[in-house]
Amino acid sequence: MKLMNKGLPRGLRLAPLALLLALSGQAQAAPSSGLDVGGFDKSVRAQDDLFRAANGQWIARTEIPADKADYGSFIILADQSDKQVRAIVEELAARPQQAGSVEQKIAAFYAAYTDTAAIDKAGLAPLQPRLASIAAIKTRAELAAWLGKAQGEFSTPVLLSVQPDSKDPTTHLALTWQGGLGMPDRDYYLKDDERLAKARAAYELYLTRLAQLSGDKQAAATARTVLALEKRIAEAHWPKVELRDPVKTYNPMTPAELAAAAPGMDWAAFLAAGQLGGIQRLSVSQPSLATGVAKLVAEVPLEQWKAYLRLRVLDESADVLPKAFREARFAFKGTALTGAKEEKPRWQKGIDEVNSALGEAVGKVYVERHFPPAYKARMQELVKNLLAAYGESIDGLAWMSPETKAQAKDKLSKYMSKIGYPDVWRDYSKLEVKAGDAAGNRGRSSRFEWARIAQRAGKPVDRAEWEMTPQTVNAYYNPPLNEIVFPAAILQPPFFDMAADDAANYGAIGAVIGHEISHGFDDQGSQFDGDGKLRNWWTEADRKAFDAIGAQLVAQYGGYEPLPGKQLNGKLTLGENIADLSGLQIAYKAYKRSLGGQPAPVLDGYSGEQRFFLGWSQAWREKVREERSLQLLTIDPHSPPKFRANGAAVNHDGFHEAFGTKDGDGMFKPADKRIRIW
């Protein structure tokens, strides 16, 4: 996942989850297994295919909804969260709110976005000031300034951000990143692949349609021009695997040094327009991208750049433009790219919009209604249990020296966990929201958020901030802050069930917690120390041993073929695969310790150990359309769900013991071939 405090004293027995429930004041009925046994495929043995055994019947009887590109545990929970947020928003909209209050802003923002009749009537008028600003560009310095001013609102070839400095994570540092493409990744422009070529053809049709709808008399020629420029931008982009190297992407320099290294673009004008004119230094994350884009700014005729900017603005604004624009956007970004058959309901897109603009304001009400204090208390105990188990695992590593183990334990001891919701809520008092102005509201909210981010440059890091809203179904580890974060919305079945037996909870949310903890020790996170500094704290021999184990995982996952002729990229997915493998290992240790040496009950015909792995597999339940699968294989650092479930379990001694695998079983792997990292 994006989908990690101190461990318990060594040797302290971990309390069973049922006991933790009792301590939190919850009445205890006989626990359920926490498993959807009706979704199992009893004709498939877990020994042959754990994912299919736990999910086969669900897969067979479940149709992906027409408005979805994929469907499973995460999407089902996200839909539930959206419905809960919708109830909050519509409740606010149903009664008068004080002008300028955050409640009034939420209601007005949602109402404007969902009023498609008003959007249709407005036509292109809400976008005319932005389009006029493009038409007014007369010089390359003005082009650079336009690109800077668009930060936070539109994707430009060079994006700006402000993040904790990797070498001094107590302070914020501005940085650049690559962007500006209308398709998901450089591969869509550059690779000779039949499926990608089909997507390129659909994109050209989409660009042509946008140009036609905006009144362009040479629409097809404009589309070809823009596609050609985007291809040149894509050629300057780094491949996704290279972006995973935090050392390679950390390149601090002064603005003057950037201007000297990447001539052809007025970087001073770009930074000033992007509200970063006063910075002393920034990290140029992809230096060759900056050089390449600067060269394009200098050489490509301004009229071509202006055509590109017009279509970028129309594309990224299409869902707040009249129906013809919305339909064109869905035909490409929905059907062509993901295989979805119908547009997501407007109300649900409206919830996405409100969550993006005023997410923490909505989240504050959400947690009051849907996240009882007992949930947070139980999660806090689970996190402590997993951290304690992780510490014991580090102690037992045979391939790591005592010197590096001490550094690893120090890092683990400094983990900070955030559960449910932030302690300090974001202030939206300066955000202006106007009734009936969907496009304007989006622009103002984007600029409001960018101003909040830009002003942090050079200032101390606020460790209380969250990168996700409480109503987000996800979790993350943040290396510079050395923190694990679990929003409230993921803490529900099938990941977290207050009424379920321990085994399934440890296999699901326990493994999720372990996954996020493990990100601090994957191929990327392991390059940051306990204070969040990008620093090599490994001995040379230990790092070599760690990388050798990682290479085994790359080979294992690189052998999977999710689509005919399309292999899984083991290097792109390495970090997530390490986190899955390690998280599952640690969660299992924590579960076994929680039993205190006593056997778990048999529920639904399965032992506790079997329920642990079935709970793990059930959490990754999902179906995916082929177009969406291609997109994810190109851009997503996570492996497809089937390979997440089976790929980690096949390396786990506990899985083989629980199900008694033997030579000839589909999931059998000899003990000496199993990959063990943490």
UniProtKB/TrEMBL annotation:
The keyword Hydrolase applies. It holds the Pfam family Peptidase_M13_N. One of its GO terms (molecular function) is hydrolase activity. Keywords: Hydrolase, Metal-binding, Metalloprotease, Protease, Signal, Zinc. Its EC number is 3.4.24.-. Its cofactor is Zn(2+). Coiled coil: none annotated. Residues 1-29 form the signal peptide. PROSITE patterns: NEPRILYSIN. Residues 474-674 form the Peptidase M13 C-terminal domain. Residues 47-422 form the Peptidase M13 N-terminal domain. Belongs to the peptidase M13 family. This is M13 family metallopeptidase. It comes from Roseateles violae.
